[in-house]
Amino acid sequence: MSKYDHLIDQEMVNGHWSWDSDRALLYAVGVGAGLDDPLEELQFTTENTPGLPQQVIPSFATIMGLQSDWMELLGWQKVGLSPVGMVHGEQSVTLARPLPVSGTAHLSTILRQVYDKGSGALVVQETRITLADTNEYLGSTCSGIFAQGKGNFGGPRGPSGATGWDQPSRAPDVKITLPVGLNQSLVYRLSGDRHPHGTEPTRARADGFEKPILYGLGTYGFACRALLRGLCEGDVTRFGHMAGRFSKPVYPGDRLDTVIWRTEEGAVFQMIANGERVVLDRGVFRFRE
Ligand SMILES: C/C=C/C(=O)SCCNC(=O)CCNC(=O)[C@H](O)C(C)(C)COP(=O)(O)OP(=O)(O)OC[C@H]1O[C@@H](n2cnc3c(N)ncnc32)[C@H](O)[C@@H]1OP(=O)(O)O
C-alpha cells in the first residue's frame, strides 16, 4: 500500500465550464495560428470569413482539463500555482466529434494514478467532457504531471517509457515547420494557463528551465496545428486522438519542426526545436473513426 493509493479513482472535479467563440479564437492565436501565415488558418482565427465557418482547434480541450486542484488532494504545498519543479510530462486528447465554437461542458476529472518514477512522481488524471445541455459525449483528456523531487514514496513504477513507441527507420513522410513568437507565452496564458514559469525568470529557473518557457500545453497546441495541417488539410472533423510526451522545454522564439510518419490508423510524430532537441516525443495521432 503506498501513500496515495486511497486517492486513486477519486473524482476531483464535477462541474460545468463554459466557453465562447472569442475564447477559442484567443486560444488559436495563443498556440501560434496565423503567425507564419495570417491567411493559412482563418478557420481557427476568425469567426467571419465568408465560406469558412469557425472551427475550434481540438487541443483546446486541454484547457478544460486544467480545472482541477488536485495538488491539495495529494497534500502538496504549492509555491504560487504548483510545487517547485513540477512540469507537464504527458498529454492526450481524444474527441468523439469536433468541439463546438461555444458551449457549456460538464467536466468530470478522475485521479487515475500516481506513479513513482524515482526522480519524481507522475500524476495521471483524466477528464471526461460532455455537453451540459444534451449530455452528448465530446471526448476526454488525460494528463501526466511530473513532480520532480516527489518520487521514491514506494508507489508503483507504472509503464516503462522505453516501450510501446518506436521511431520508424525511414525518413518522415511529412514535416511541418512552425515558428514560436517571442510573445507567445504572454498570449497563450490568456487562455487560462497562467503558471509564472512562462513569464518569470526566477520561477522558470527554480522549476529547472533556463528562462521562461512556452507552456507545455501551448507546445501541445502547436503540435495539434501541425498535425491538422500535415494530415487533415486543416479540417478538425478528421481529428480523433493525439498523445505525446514533453521531453525538453520549448522557449519563445524557437522554430518547431513536427516530423510525421503515417501509420495505418493515423501517424506517429515528434516535435524538434531548432533542429536540435526533441521537445515532444512518442507522439501518436489517430484519425476519427
Ligand atoms: C505545471 C507545468 C507546466 C508546464 O507546462 S512545464 C513545460 C512542459 N514540460 C517540460 O518541458 C518537461 C520536459 N521534460 C523534462 O524536463 C524531463 O523529461 C522530466 C523532468 C519530466 C523527467 O526527466 P528525468 O527526471 O531526467 O527522468 P528520466 O530519468 O529520463 O526518466 C525517469 C522515469 O520517468 C519517465 N519519464 C521521463 N520523462 C517523462 C515525461 N515527460 N513524462 C512522463 N514520464 C516521464 C521515464 O520513462 C522513466 O520512467 P521508466 O524508467 O519507468 O520508464
TrEMBL record:
Q: Which InterPro entries match?
A: HotDog_dom_sf (IPR029069), MaoC-like_dom (IPR002539), MFE-2_N (IPR054357)
The entry lists its GO molecular-function terms as:
(3S)-3-hydroxyacyl-CoA dehydrogenase (NAD+) activity; 17-beta-hydroxysteroid dehydrogenase (NAD+) activity; enoyl-CoA hydratase activity
All residue ranges annotated as the Peroxisomal multifunctional enzyme type 2-like N-terminal domain in the record: 18-149
Q: Which residues form the MaoC-like domain?
A: 168-273
Q: Which biological process annotations from GO are given for this protein? A: fatty acid beta-oxidation
Q: Which domain of life is it from?
A: Bacteria
> What SUPFAM superfamilies has UniProt attached to this entry?
Thioesterase/thiol ester dehydrase-isomerase
One Pfam match, by short name?
A: MFE-2_hydrat-2_N
What protein is this chain from?
Answer: Enoyl-CoA hydratase
Annotated organism of origin: Mangrovimicrobium sediminis
